[in-house]
Protein 1
Amino acid sequence: MTDSERTALLRAFDSGWVAPIGPEIDAFETEFAERVGVRHAVALSSGTAALHLALLACGVMPGDRVAVSTLTFVASANVIRYVGAHPIFIDSEEASWNIDPQLLREEIREQDAKGTPIRAVIAVDLFGQCADYTRIRNTCNEFGVRLIEDAAEALGAQCNGASAGSFGEIGCFSFNGNKIITTSGGGMLVTNHAALAESVKRWATQSRLPTRHYEHSELGYNYRLSNLLAAIGRAQLARLDETVRRRRQIFDQYVSRLGPLSGIRFMPEAPGNTCSRWLTVALIDESEFGCGRDAVIDALEQQNIESRPTWKPMHLQALYEGATIRGGSVSERIFTEGVCLPSGTSMSDDAVDRVCDVVQATASRLTISNA
Ligand SMILES: Cc1ncc(COP(=O)(O)O)c(C=O)c1O
């Protein structure tokens, strides 16, 4: 957060628009849609709310099946349960760590042949990198499956010149505190379909109809973003290019310092992609590096440096025990070997170097003790 966010917040505060309605929301939606390259944006209280309403907008009903990347944050799957549908988990591909288009196609085809068609796909753009939408979209179009892009982690990423969030029928973003831009909490749903955006806006405001009294004909939710938070979002959005540039620099610094070590490799950038590098994620191969991912996290923690494992795949979560999974070994390896290194935009080069020193020392200590 900088002075521009503080100024924006005070501007909104002083305007008296302290409700989930007001000029900052309207402007945030317009600027955001323009930035992503879509016609409509609806500002919401969280990325989870955006995904929930996206499923409703796609007509997903109780008992339906929805395919989703297994390697993701739990919200991508939970929303499927919110609408009473069943998640079908799909493994990652090696090239981008995102949903494997081939496995997705096989699952869609198989379910279709069984007479239990998959209604929608939630493809996640993991850690700031777009999934392979050319192949995913072809399959969805062929089988009449609705496509939702969970771009919560990928604002600012691009693929073949188009922005993350613009590839699905609906794109969903998060402005949670740890995201590339934040409103402390918030989200955005984007789409090119005017009627769909209109419905989502209505559902997000308790489905109140435009009458003088309170008239409701559909179930609604309290999912709109506050005008105060929209002002912060606008100031953050204005600095997005700078933020992505810095995240990519941080990634490059990690790679140049740690890349030469044996047994460590970084999330690949698939052809056509420009990752936002929301997080720098490394895989530690214990047999080559000398110690595993957890030992690296422990060593960093001893120096008061926070790092985290990558997402634990949904098919390994007790919450989703018994759910269908197609494949699984790629995401499992990313989970057991993966560490998310400190990646905050405000990190100095020296701070990144300090993290590298600790990781490097862990490797050399183990190399010496193994010798
Ligand atoms: C992939 C993914 N989807 C959905 C969400 C949910 O967003 P929110 O926390 O804003 O509800 C997050 C992060 O929080 C996420 O990383």
Note: The longest helix spans residues 349-370.
Protein 2
Amino acid sequence: MTKKWDVIIVGGGLAGLVAANYLAKTDLSILVLEKGKKIGGRARTDCIRQQYLNLGPHALYKKGKAKLILEELDVELNGKSPKLGGILVEKNMEYTAPFTLLGIFSTSLLNWKERIEWARVLIKVILINTETLAQQTFEEWVQQTSDSEKVQSLFYLLGRLGTYCHASEKASAKIIVSHLKAVLSGVLYLDNGWQTIIDQLHNKAVISGVQIQTHKAIKQIDPIENDHFKLVLSNNEEFSGKYVLCTTAPHELNHMLGEKATLSQIDAFSKMTAVKGATIDVALTQLPNPKQLFAMGLTDPLYFSVHSSYARLSEDAKSAVLHVFRYYHPDEQIDGITVKNELEQFLEKMQPGWKNYVITSRFIPQINVNQRLPRIGDEQRLNRFKTEFPGLYIAGDWASLDSILSEGAVSSGKQAAEEIIKKEKS
Ligand SMILES: Cc1cc2nc3c(=O)[nH]c(=O)nc-3n(C[C@H](O)[C@H](O)[C@H](O)COP(=O)(O)OP(=O)(O)OC[C@H]3O[C@@H](n4cnc5c(N)ncnc54)[C@H](O)[C@@H]3O)c2cc1C
């Protein structure tokens, strides 16, 4: 006889583990099934040669809802905030980044008129009610906000920094600007990486009775009669649950539902494209240029930051752990070799001779940073799904109506758990 679980959570990333922790406060029996050999998903940290490498650069919004929710679950978040400084690079020229008052006054990137304009629009961002931007793309909002090309470029850059989205003509202004507001309030680089969040969520869930199994790839979710679901794994093992919370990517959910997926859902989910990028994660014995800790391309979609200058990211806390990142446009043809060269050259510009100091380095040519590029109208698509399958819930960085990245993953995990608890009580 297959055991019937009250809740089966598909995926042991941030969303799944947050949901498991909230559900664990009830009497419901909870099973998390993760296809990987480890839990954590994209928030995991790999310890390689005693260096803690997140999967690309990871920064937690200091005033975001993910931090609040994690703290509500008693997750300790230790780390420091990077200074909002560094340089911007454009056509071999380097400029002080105008992200602080001092930066705005001292940068040679902007003339006086542009400095005043930039300061004015930054204040506007802080004060804006993002609900008023629901029907605009980020590009439309930027162009309407300032006529200055430099100021516009700075907004697109901040948009990339805060959301990883490099498609301002497609992305929803409401989501991008709300994340910009959060970025301007500061971020945290976490000691020992984001694995510390995963490990704490995992331990708390297990102590509260949640069962977590790895190496369990679900291939089919079958809504069957009497309000329950049959889950079939790739090895044909079967599990049965009253509620299913799916935290995989939207196209994977379509695939798992197979012919049970409705046409409108297939249509809505297959239109969702991921926010993608490439990363080089590096640990060096020392920095060739210790003063250069942060840089971005002004128009080239490139990022460089030394995370270990603020967070402890190696066993001996002596080495330098840094990330170099390339933001992708969704329509871009990706050539891994070219991108690797581009990232290495950018790093060479910031840290000349870095290759002489490498402890460990890895290049990931393509990774989904967020499973959904947030677009106008996504809210209706996501809401429609909720009504189609009673008992089947979604969470993950793509499933939140008003946020993306860890903000979306953590808040949708909490929300889905609360919806299940409410349904169970009704
Ligand atoms: C390079 C990079 C940089 C980032 N930087 C930031 C940042 O600075 N700030 C920020 O807030 N966020 C950042 N993020 C985003 C953040 O890491 C993710 O939004 C978050 O980790 C997503 O959590 P999730 O649970 O929604 O998805 P995931 O972490 O993807 O978890 C889903 C889990 O489901 C499992 N799964 C999938 N299919 C199946 C199946 N069929 N059966 C069983 N299990 C399955 C997967 O293996 C995975 O473990 C970044 C991400 C990347 C990749």
Note: The chain has three domains: 4-44+196-272+373-425, 45-59+275-370, 97-184.
Protein 3
Amino acid sequence: DELPGIFDLTEQEKIPRLCVYHLAYAGRGDKMRRFDLEPRRTRAVVDYIFQRSQDLHARGIDKDILTVDNHADNPYLYMRVQKEQPQRTEEVYQMLRWNGGNQSGIAVSSIDPLGHLHVDQFSWHYSLGDVRQRPFAEIWSDTSDPVMRLLKDRKPHLKGRCRVCKWLDVCNGNLRVRAERYFGDFLAPDPACYLTDEEIGIAPGTPAAEESARWPVPVHDESAGSSQLSPAPRRRLR
Ligand code: SF4
């Protein structure tokens, strides 16, 4: 419910860039996991971000507006373009393909203060090596590390709905550390994906539906639908 004010402030103060992060279940984010938005509400927030971004653009106000850490936003954006600007679908899809979805271990890395190299800033629990001992390029291209090997070619190894999703090329299975924290398996489906089985190309009664059901995620529990941003219940951290 604070997002409208944040957008207003960004505009009033002429701030050039606004990043809105989905919750990553790692570090402090993992402790706050129970406060994560339900899929329906996540959709409403993403709708709102799209709407405000379009409004800024329509008024000629140049700003970078980013959503971060949930690459289900890529297909969700594409579906919105299909509805609202069908003439741009091919162009937008090409850009999303270029983006490629989640890039942990591919184009994203993180080095902690001790020199340990990680696949992203949320995965400090797993070190690929120490850049004080080995050059970055050597560690980064060493696929004898099992996590690095899987992340660089993850699609055939994913499980559940991510394995059979039609949007893999533009989402790439989303944030693996969130799946790991939720299911204890970093190849499991990302629990923060708010797209329904239908939206990701899974038809009822098919083997793909069975695979999806083997790894239940929150969106399975609700019938998702685009809605307007309404005040969220206030919650307090305990
Ligand atoms: S099911 Fe997985 S791969 Fe498909 S959009 Fe959702 S998070 Fe991405």
Note: Residues 3-99+154-219 form one domain.
Protein 4
Amino acid sequence: MDKASLRREMRRRRRAVSRSESRQAGIRLASSLHSNPAFCRSPRVAVYLRNDGEIDTSHLIQRLRQRGVEVFLPVLHPLKKGHLAFIRYDNNTPMRRNCYGISEPDFRYGQKVPARFLSTICLPLVAFDESGNRIGMGGGYYDRTLAFCRRPGVRPRLIGCAYEFQKLPALPADGWDIPLSAIATNVRLRTVRNNPD
Ligand SMILES: Nc1ncnc2c1ncn2[C@@H]1O[C@H](COP(=O)(O)OP(=O)(O)OP(=O)(O)O)[C@@H](O)[C@H]1O
Ligand SMILES: [Mg+2]
């Protein structure tokens, strides 16, 4: 199946999960992530706010804040088209809705950090496979923003966050797709083989 058909089918399945099931799964997701020593050592972590049936991150965010971890959210970059910026997120962060209706920090007031200074980025996804291939919503936002991860040097760990049922055998991957370092679900965390993290 091509990316578009897989995306359609998996988004449908994802949206069929109830809010309370998503919240429960989100608690287990936070545990899977915290089973990873490198995640527990990350001082600056980017997450996302649940949209379109994605697994809930509210418990994860709460747990990170309690541990004193700096939390960031992606924002559609107003100047660099097709790219994301990352902005510090706490209880006082001014928020707005972007063109997709997703709540995001207001770029004008936010404290921005370049993606390469983040220790870990938790990415939402529509489907993943065990090799770290990821299908997102189809905007190419994460792929463009994280294209620098192909070059050698310091880079954030890229952890896909999903329900276990979003795992599929061997996904199609394009040249521009940036592979994940690991995938965390409501069941477990999988480190991608051949990945130094
Ligand atoms: N580094 C890049 N430079 C230019 N265009 C890119 C780049 N990465 C992706 N794109 C474009 O983005 C489009 C969508 O890519 P893709 O289908 O992989 O999205 P996705 O990974 O599902 O989306 P997202 O990253 O937003 O979750 C593609 O048509 C591709 O041309
Ligand atoms: Mg992609």
Note: The domain at 3-191 is CATH 3.40.50.10420 (Rossmann fold).
